[in-house]
Automatic annotation (TrEMBL):
Reaction catalysis annotation: protoporphyrinogen IX + 3 A = protoporphyrin IX + 3 AH2
This protein's record includes keyword Cell membrane: yes
One Pfam family in the UniProt entry: UPF0093
Record's bilayer topology term: Multi-pass membrane protein
Similarity comment: Belongs to the HemJ family.
Function: Catalyzes the oxidation of protoporphyrinogen IX to protoporphyrin IX.
Source organism of the structure: Pseudomonas saudiphocaensis
Location of this chain's protein in the cell: Cell membrane
GO BP annotation list: protoporphyrinogen IX biosynthetic process
Enzyme class: oxidoreductase
Cofactor note: Binds 1 heme b (iron(II)-protoporphyrin IX) group per subunit.
Name the UniProt record assigns to this protein: Protoporphyrinogen IX oxidase
Amino acid sequence: MPLLKLLHFASLLCWCGALLYLPALIAAGTQRSEPLFYRDHAHLTRTVFNLIATPAALIAIGSGSAIFLRDGLVAGWLIVKLTMVAGMVMCHALCGVLVLRIERSPERSASIQCRILGVFIAAFITATLWLVLAKPF
């Protein structure tokens, strides 16, 4: 089943890339003064979230679950890794909340929330990668 792992890695790469990109995209959408920019930028942000990040997340989680069920592996590092993935899912949901917020009131700045969210996303991705590669326990 190397194709299943390939699907998992590819979708995880797309999801992580979109997760890292979304906070910057959201923050950029709140710092312009042109109404036309808001409409187009909000559409771009929603498109990245709905058509790239969310499907990639669903495929990554689904294929990862299939690998887990196929291998039947239960280890301490895996439980911690799944906790980190749950953190990534929460960050994904918070990106969705911020996307809705900039659509409703683009004049409100979300740069601090986006910076904090970006730090958490990077930390969760780094921890997940380290746990998978090192398998410390």
